[in-house]
Every structure is written in C-alpha cells, then in structure tokens.
Write a structure and sequence with these properties.
Blueprint: H1 4-17, E1 23-28, E2 34-35, H2 38-45, E3 50-56, E4 59-64, E5 68-73, E6 78-83, E7 106-108, E8 114-116, E9 133-139, E10 144-149, E11 155-160, H3 168-171, H4 184-191, H5 198-203, H6 213-222, H7 236-256, E12 296-300, E13 303-307
Parallel strand pairs: 2-11
Antiparallel strand pairs: 1-9, 3-4, 4-5, 5-11, 6-10, 7-8, 9-10, 12-13
The structure holds a DNA duplex.
Length: 315
DNA sequence: CAATAGCCCTGGTGGC
DNA sequence: TGCCACCAGGGCTATT
C-alpha cells in the first residue's frame, strides 16, 4: 500500500511530467473514484493546465490553473500511471531488461511511457486502461494519466485551491515526518499518557503523517521497540531512537524509489526497490538481519505486524 | 476524550 | 476441478 515514500516517489515523477500539460478530457469509469459534480469536471478540470504536484502525508495534490486542485488518496491499491502521447511504437517483442539499472532522471523507455527517476526497465505495468482503471485524464498532446485502483478504496476529489489546507482530510493530519516540525519533543508529547500500542499510535495520522503498516514495522524494529508497548511506557531514549528510525526508514525508502510489492508502481508504472532491504516487513520465518533470530508475525490493533522477538522485547 | 470494532472492496490463498 | 471462507489493510464511523 502506498505510504509516504511511495506517494513521494510518484509525486516527484509526476512533478516532472505534468506541469505544463493541459487536460483535454476526463473519463470517469467508476463514479465514486472521483468526487466532483459533473459540471465541475467539465468546467474546472477539462481545459485546465497542471501547475504543480504536491504532497501532504499520503495525499497527493495536483494544482490546476482553474483555481482548483485534485486531491488523490491511493489507499491500498491505487496507482497513478502516466503514459506519454505522440509516438506509440507498441513493441510486443520487447523483453524485460536489466532489473537494476542506475538511477535515470528522465529517459524514454521506447514504449511511449516516460520515466522520471527510479528504475526504468523494471516490470512495467501492462497495457492501459485495464480492468482496474477508474479514471482517465487525457492531455492535449495525447498523453494520458490513469488512476487505477483494484480494490476501489482510493479516491480523488476536486476542491478549491484556496480551501485545500482546510479540507477535512488535512484538518486532523499531524506533522510531516521529514519536515522540520517533526522533533523528538513533539513525538514525546504525542505519546505521553497514551495507553494504546505504540504501533497503533504510529499508524494514527494525527500524530505523524504518512506512516503505514510497512514503515511502522520497519521503524519499530530499527528503534528496537516492541510494537505492542503502550505509548506512555517508552523511555526518552527509546523515543529518540524511534524518532531517528522513522526519519531513516522513510528517507532510505524514498532513496530506493518506494517499496516494491503487489500493486505499487510509480508514476510510470514501475515498481520500487525498498522491500529487498526490508528489516522485518513480510519477512516472517526469515532470520533477523541484525541478530539472526527468526522474524515473527503477530497482530497489533487488528494489523499484521512483523517483529524480531529478540531485538524487540515487550518488557 | 481515548480505545476499539466494524466496514468499505477485490483478488489471492488454502481447505475440502 | 469447483466452491467458499478467509485474509490483506487506511481511514472513516459508531460504539463503549
């Protein structure tokens, strides 16, 4: 599921591709995927240019010249894939190339899909649209942006640019973990007097914005804190470790182009790379990279949770 | 107010 | 082979 690093990877890709593009048309294949009055779609999306692509927490913000912005939450299986228009060579015989080429800021893949960062030749998405495609944006130069979402939990909505910051989805959102406002004392104050499990608190977007199941598990392992521990039980030293761990796992993942598994792809339909280096996530039964103990999978707050029982002790 | 359970949804998996 | 219960999970809502 896209968390902060995945959304940031997609954002930076789209930020190189979309600004300057003008939207020619919008095709909504599943109504609930895009909430905006029909009249607004024709008047405030169609014909508008894209001016900027931003991010807040796990939500992407696409600013339009019409004075409106599109907010996008990918939830678990959402994807935003850009397909360049113009030339469409369609080479059916082209096989997969080297899976780990060097970072490539902007290049052509030869099939019309443009690549901005990440790993250009790694498992591309198939032909689009497909059965998971919910919304298609067509640009004046023939390029397209596909909003795909297998499980349809994701959403896009159109809001006035001036009201974006006050939108309901941002009102209760906590600090950006990679921003200057995320300080140890902030985390301390949010965990104080809280009896809920530390992992549950990390997943609560009102404390820190952008952490999901993957990076909560990863950060807790790096900080050597058991996810079931009560928030209030963490020592100052543990909170300091956790604070540093959150910043490190998110930063490392962005560096690697986001996590690679199931349905995550970046703006160009390309998978990420972080999971190869995951500490505990989806590694149950395998040895801990730090101490060799077998990674365990438990439940914390209804969520599947991966721990090293040796590195992360309850007491 | 804090904590928790249920719900939305589809595709993959494992048991029979 | 088919059928089906079950699981995955972000975040909103209702309940305690």
């Amino acid at each position: 599921m896209p968390e902060l690093p995945e959304v940031e990877t997609i954002r930076s890709g789209l930020a190189e591709l979309l600004p300057g593009q003008r939207i020619a048309g919008v095709e909504v294949l599943l109504n609930k995927s895009l909430s905006a009055p029909e009249s607004h779609i024709t008047t405030h999306i169609a014909g508008a240019g894209v001016t900027d692509v931003r991010r807040r927490g796990k939500i992407m913000i696409v600013d339009l010249s019409s004075g409106y912005s599109l907010l996008v939450h990918l939830k678990m299986t959402g994807q935003l894939v850009f397909e360049a228009g113009g030339q469409q060579p369609a080479k059916p015989g082209t096989g997969t190339n080297e899976p780990h080429s060097c970072p490539n800021p902007t290049s052509e893949t030869g099939d019309g899909r443009r690549v901005a960062g990440g790993h250009p030749t790694q498992s591309m998405a198939g032909d689009l649209p497909d059965k998971t495609t919910r919304v298609i944006f067509t640009f004046q130069d023939g390029s397209k942006l596909f909003f795909n979402d297998q499980r349809t939990f994701g959403w896009m909505k159109l809001v006035e640019r001036s009201k974006v910051e006050r939108d309901k989805c941002f009102m209760a959102m906590g600090v950006e973990p990679l921003g200057s406002q995320f300080e140890v004392c902030h985390l301390k104050s949010r965990l104080k007097h809280r009896k809920a499990a530390i992992k549950t608190l990390l997943l609560d977007q009102s404390h820190v914005a952008g952490l999901g199941n993957i990076y909560a598990d990863e950060a807790l392992h790096l900080a050597q804190v058991h996810p079931s521990r009560e928030g209030q039980s963490l020592s100052d030293e543990e909170i300091e470790r956790l604070h540093a761990a959150i910043i490190k796992v998110l930063g490392d993942s962005i560096q690697a182009g986001g996590t690679s598994f199931t349905s995550y792809v970046n703006a160009n339909g390309i998978t990420g790379d972080y999971l190869h280096n995951a500490r505990v996530y989806r590694r149950q039964g395998e040895p801990c990279r730090a101490c060799g103990t077998t990674i365990d999978k438990i439940k914390v707050g209804q969520r599947g949770t991966h721990i090293c029982p040796n590195c992360q002790k309850l007491t």
